[in-house]
Amino acid sequence: MRKKPELSLRTRALRYLARREHSRAELHSKLQPYVQEGEDVEAVLDELEKRNWLSDARAANLLVDSKRSRFGSQRIAHELRQKGIADSLIEQAMPQLKETELEAAREVWQRKFGIASQDAKEKAKQMRFMQSRGFSMEVIFKVLCSHGTVGDE
Fold first, then answer.
1. Which of 2, 47, 93, 116 is deepest in the core (most CB within 10 A)?
2. In 11-113, at which residue ranges do the beta strands (DSSP E only) sit?
3. Phi, psi (rounded to 5 degrees) for 41
């Protein structure tokens, strides 16, 4: 039985990028286990960026667009940092995220709960859930106040 030929780093990188956008740091860590002697991951990544096949800005925009209706700006910023997106790109995305965060929080709350809390325990549960989704306390209070759940004791 013949052994499959080993894929080049460039081919592996292109396969990853064909599935979805990746940040440079993310792609670097995925390729690292496959580096053979004499291969240069940085050179492959540089070439992909030069051809505009690899873009941290594009990866950040796609992540923001895919997560904004389910998560708050804090959680999205955290995910961007985990993927190695530069702070400057994260800062550029924040104003756009903050604009839609309240509406997203209202939709998330409505889908999950839909009715005002009846007691302090339920209110705390709702607040913890919203916090786990990355919404700020300010946004959470606005959502809960608009549904009569905060300050109703």
1. 93
2. none
3. -60, -45
* 33-66 tens-digit pLDDT: 999 888 899 999 999 999 999 999 999 999 999 9
Give the residue carrying structure tokens 């904004």. 68
105-153: per-residue pLDDT in tens?
Answer: 999 999 999 888 889 999 999 999 999 999 999 999 999 988 766 554 4
The answer to whether the Cα torsion of 105, 95, 138, 127 is positive or negative is positive
User: Which residue type sits at 105?
Assistant: A
Sequence-distant (≥ 6) Cβ neighbours of residue 73 within 8 angstroms: 94, 97, 98, 101, 134, 135, 136
User: Helix-strand-coil percent breakdown of the chain, rounded to 5?
Assistant: 65, 0, 35
Would you tell me how many other CB atoms lie within 10 Å of the CB of residue 45?
Answer: 19
Integer angstrom CA distances of residue 99 from 5, 73, 90, 93, 146:
50, 10, 15, 10, 18
Residues 6 or more apart whose CB falls under 8 angstroms from that of 4 comprise none
Please name the fold of domain 1-54: Arc Repressor Mutant, subunit A (1.10.10)
Burial class (CB in 10 A: 0-12, 13-18, 19+), 51: exposed
